[in-house]
Amino acid sequence: MSEEKQQVSRRQFLNYSLMGVGGFMAAGLLVSPIRMAIDPVLKKTSSAGEFVNVGLAVEDITTTPQRVDWQIDQVDGWYESKPGRSAWVYKNEKGDIVALSPVCTHLGCVVSWEGSDKHQNEFFCPCHDGRYTKDGVNIPGTPPLAPLSVYEHKVENGMLFLGKEISRKGA
Amino acid sequence: MLQKIYDWIDERVDITPIWRDIADHEVPEHVNPAHHFSAFVYCFGGLTFFVVVIQILSGMFLTMYYVPDIENAWKSVYYLQTEVAHGQIVRGMHHWGASIVIVMLLLHTLRVFFQGAYKKPRELNWMVGVLIFFVMLGLGFTGYLLPWDNKAFFATQVGLQMAEQVPIIGDELKILLAGDEEIVGAQTLTRFFAIHVFFLPAALFALLAAHFILIRRQGISGPL
């Protein structure tokens, strides 16, 4: 031990103790409110993306896109609802099922298969003449800057199930 | 009678110096429009505050009818707008004031900028002012959702997508604001209400206090 003792005066000691206790109390007071506020970020239990039977038999899916409408069970905290979803479903040349979201990637209108007489074999958006090829890729020179989103799909007992909507990068 | 009440209180708690300190200060000639009409540009800060006071008062009264619930929010706004006497006027004050406050704030900022009034020693007050600007934008953004009509809903969709573009923390920031990963719904509305009515006003009051204390300590900047 050195001769020079590190002196802590009574006043300093009390100051530090009070600051420590005060800081601890303030922190304790804030923990729960902050944890409560960030709960949605940590929980991430959105019901969106669960596979839902859309009521279409796989054998009825043709190479021509057909529109299917279904409802999902949406849980928003304490509020449960059944909002509608739509997709254009077809089999491509390889025989794979494709389910495209009809929401135009330009400004969110609803596109239709061969929605315009002038543009055969394409998806057409009536709002600003946005066009997409059959695989949902936007045609350059038309307003949309990204392909139509695709729905994840699976087949169970011959029925089509659609799940999460996956957006695709701009072409 | 009023004088007697004032004297009675003043005799006991000496309130005269308190309000003197707040209200009694010289207005230099170069900021007085009565001397130089062009000095009206100095009014924009005060006008911003005036509109803020209107926003606070009208907002307090709006909450007597408004409910932040997705089933009832729109209905409550519709009710107070169409059925409640003068409800249209109070909501009109809040609606138009929200735009006017931004206009006034920008004019005030332009005046401070082009007069160079932000320069030393007033840099700190400029920074506080910028924070006030951000808080005001936040109030505008969160308040826009509350009527829960189509315009409100889709404007918030866009705003949340913008928050999502923030590097690294974008996703978390969006969920923190929206209260859900995918849905703009019940939890978004309650969150935006809480932010609009409690969190941001609290921040605004603190920043305004700092803004005013600084301007009183440093005085208004000299003539050009």
From TrEMBL, chain A:
Q: Which residues form the Rieske domain?
A: 83-162
Does this entry carry the keyword Metal-binding? yes
Q: Which cofactor does it need?
A: [2Fe-2S] cluster
What keywords tag this UniProt record?
2Fe-2S, Disulfide bond, Electron transport, Iron, Iron-sulfur, Membrane, Metal-binding, Oxidoreductase, Transmembrane, Transmembrane helix, Transport
Task: Mark the transmembrane ranges.
Answer: 13-34
Q: Which domain of life is it from?
A: Bacteria
Lipoprotein as UniProt keyword: no
Family annotation (InterPro entries): Rieske_2Fe-2S, Rieske_2Fe-2S_sf, Rieske_Fe-S_prot, Rieske_Fe-S_prot_C, TAT_signal
Pfam families given in the database record: Rieske
**Which is one GO molecular function term here?**
metal ion binding
Question: Gene3D superfamilies attached here?
Answer: Rieske [2Fe-2S] iron-sulphur domain
| UniProt record similarity statement | Belongs to the Rieske iron-sulfur protein family.
Query: What exactly does this protein do?
Result: Component of the menaquinol:cytochrome c reductase complex. The Rieske protein is a high potential 2Fe-2S protein.
The subunit structure is:
The main subunits of the menaquinol:cytochrome c complex are a Rieske-type iron-sulfur protein (QcrA), a cytochrome b (QcrB) and a cytochrome c (QcrC).
Name of this chain's protein: Menaquinol:cytochrome c reductase iron-sulfur subunit
Lineage of the organism: Bacteria, Bacillati, Bacillota, Bacilli, Bacillales
From TrEMBL, chain B:
Q: Does the keyword Membrane apply?
A: yes
The Cytochrome b/b6 N-terminal region profile domain sits at 5-224
User: Where does it reside?
Assistant: Cell membrane
Q: What is the recorded membrane topology of this protein?
A: Multi-pass membrane protein
Q: Which cofactor does it need?
A: heme b; heme c
**One annotated Gene Ontology cellular component of this protein:** plasma membrane
Q: Does the keyword Iron-sulfur apply?
A: no
The primary location reported for this protein is membrane
- InterPro entries the UniProt entry points to: Cyt_b/b6_N, Cytb/b6-like_sf, Di-haem_cyt_TM
Q: Where are the transmembrane segments?
A: 39-67, 96-114, 126-146, 193-215
GO annotations under biological process? respiratory electron transport chain
Pfam families recorded: Cytochrome_B (PF00033)
Q: What does this protein do?
A: Component of the menaquinol:cytochrome c reductase complex.
- NCBIfam families, from UniProt? cytb_ExtP, PRK03735.1
Q: Subunit info?
A: The main subunits of the menaquinol:cytochrome c complex are a Rieske-type iron-sulfur protein (QcrA), a cytochrome b (QcrB) and a cytochrome c (QcrC).
Q: What is this protein called?
A: Menaquinol:cytochrome c reductase cytochrome b subunit
